[in-house]
Amino acid sequence: MADRRNATSTAAGVLRPDELAKHVRLERLPCAETLAPWVENYWTLRWDLPASASFVSSTLPHPACNLSVEKGHLRAGIGVDPVVVTGVPTRRFDVTIRDTGWVFAVKFRPGGLASLAGRSVRPLRDVTAPARTILPAALADDLAGLGPHLGDDDCRAQFDRLLARPGVVPEPAYESVLEVVSVMLEDRSLVRVGQVEERCGIERRRLQRLFERYVGVSPKWTLARYRIHDAVTDLDAGYDGSLADLAARYGWFDQAHFTREFTELVGVPPSTYRRE
């Protein structure tokens, strides 16, 4: 069974994390052990900017859904409902932060929300929706009472209590998804889905069906995102080698292909990202 010792995600993906830290306090917190098979971690944001200031926070997509309580920040198309489910985004995720605000959220493991909710999350890809349209309304009502007046530990305890599934264990199909994702993360020499299938002993169509239902995106997409995350992390850490070497390190056959995929997701070429 997956647990905290078997990570199925990373902290990578936040673009220019040093700049974000100047405007926003980001914290990641563990969940209760009973939720660990479905939940990667909790995360919280707090900010208090001058009236004339704003900051655009940009994050690269992960193959994971989030359930969040957001105060002082209204999502487009959501209205005033503070409890929000965000499906897997396939593009860079930009949020403009201004004034004063607070967010407390759960980041599910890849497939975790589908397993907990007993439904496919494919329809949630690139979707942000009020949680009550996806999860029980009573759960959304209880979570709506959380806010910046509470400490992180209090919020975490409430999420732990409300999401708990005593005596329930992950279904075998979901466990298979977690195993594949763990292999993708642990062995960065795997750069093609065929290599993953061979390593995990799983047939291609079955793997695609599992990811379609539980994760909402394909195995190929997931593997490609992890490679971009790795490259961005290196650039943020001050990588000063050649971009051709960086591309080769993470499995691209040529720099042009790397530059094209990087630009499509991040928004600028790797040379510009490094320079800026």
Keyphrases for this structure?
8 strands, 276 residues, 6-stranded antiparallel sheet, two-stranded antiparallel sheet, alpha+beta, Arc Repressor Mutant, subunit A, 11 helices, 2 domains, globular, Immunoglobulin-like, disordered N terminus, single chain, 18% strand
What does this structure look like?
The chain has 276 residues and is of the alpha+beta class. The protein folds into two domains: 17-163, Immunoglobulin-like (Sandwich), CATH 2.60.40; 172-275, Arc Repressor Mutant, subunit A. It is 39% helix and 18% strand. The chain has helices at 17-20, 112-117, 137-144, 152-163, 172-186, 193-200, 204-215, 219-236, 243-249, 255-266, 270-275; strands at 25-29, 39-48, 54-59, 66-71, 83-86, 93-98, 100-108, 128-130. Strands 1-2-7-4-5-8 form a six-stranded antiparallel beta sheet. Helix 5 (172-186) crosses helix 6 and helix 5 (172-186) packs across helix 7.
Q: How would a crystallographer describe the biggest sheet?
A: 6 strands, antiparallel
Number of helices: 11
Q: If strands are numbered along the chain, what order do they take across the biggest sheet?
A: 1-2-7-4-5-8
What's the alpha carbon Rg, rounded to whole Å?
A: 19 Å
Counting helices, strands and paired strands, the structural category is alpha+beta
The count of strands amounts to 8
CATH architecture of the largest domain: Sandwich
The helix/strand order is: HEEEEEEEHEHHHHHHHHH
Mean pLDDT: 93
Distance between the termini: 42 Å
Strand-residue fraction?
15-25%
Could you name the CATH topology of the largest domain?
Answer: Immunoglobulin-like
Q: Please report the first level of CATH classification, the CATH class of the largest domain.
A: Mainly Beta
Number of domains: 2
